[in-house]
Amino acid sequence: MKAGGWDRHLPGQLQVDLVEHCGQSASGLYGNTVSCADVAFGWWEGEIVLGSGQERSCNALERIRKRTPFNWLQERDVVRTALQNFEEIAEIPTYSVPA
Predict the structure, then answer these.
(1) What sign does the CA torsion over 34, 60, 88, 30 have?
(2) Tens of pLDDT along 6-65?
(3) Which band of pLDDT confidence, cut at 50, 70 and 90, is reported for residue 82?
(4) CA-to-CA distance for 35 and 64, rounded, in angstroms?
(5) Is-contact 17 89, C-beta < 8 A?
(6) Where are the domains of the chain?
(7) Which of 2, 16, 83, 97 has a C-alpha 20 to 30 A away from that of 42?
(8) For residues 87-99, average pLDDT
(9) DSSP states of 23-59 as a string?
(10) Residue 65 backbone phi and psi in degrees, to 5
(11) Helix (H) or strand (E) holding 18
(12) What is the pLDDT of residue 44?
């Protein structure tokens, strides 16, 4: 989790990561977990996807968003825009409180 800059009393701020389950080699097709943790509650949701493609990862985020019992802050198309800039995903940007 990000060390600073969070309002730990305000739900809806998420740390989002893509975790690879590839063993010793990142070659070929393998499973990934789209992992979302709320900073205030510590609530965690995950979704397994095969590969790390943009469409599958974004669809997983949408399914996670629908399951969470609170709204995500600054909800916009940040994730899809960021994913278009990367061929392989190391980390999906976090959502944060608008200034």
Answers:
(1) positive
(2) 778 888 888 888 888 888 887 888 899 999 999 888 899 999 999 878 888 888 999 999
(3) very low
(4) 9
(5) no
(6) 14-84
(7) 83
(8) 44
(9) TT---S--EEEEEEEETTT--EEEEEEES--HHHHHH
(10) -60, -40
(11) strand 14-21
(12) 94
- The pLDDT of residue 89 is above 90: no
Task: Order the strands of the 31-38 sheet from edge to edge.
Answer: 14-21, 31-38, 44-50
Which residues, 6+ apart, have CB-to-CB distance to 68 below 8 Å?
A: 36, 38, 43, 45
**How high is the pLDDT of residue 4?**
60
Place of tokens 């629908």: 66
Compute the distance between CA of residue 57 and CA of residue 79 in angstroms, rounded to an integer. 9
Contact 98, 78 (CB under 8 A): no
Per the model's pLDDT, the better-predicted residue between 99 and 66 turns out to be: 66
Element (H, E) at 14: strand 14-21
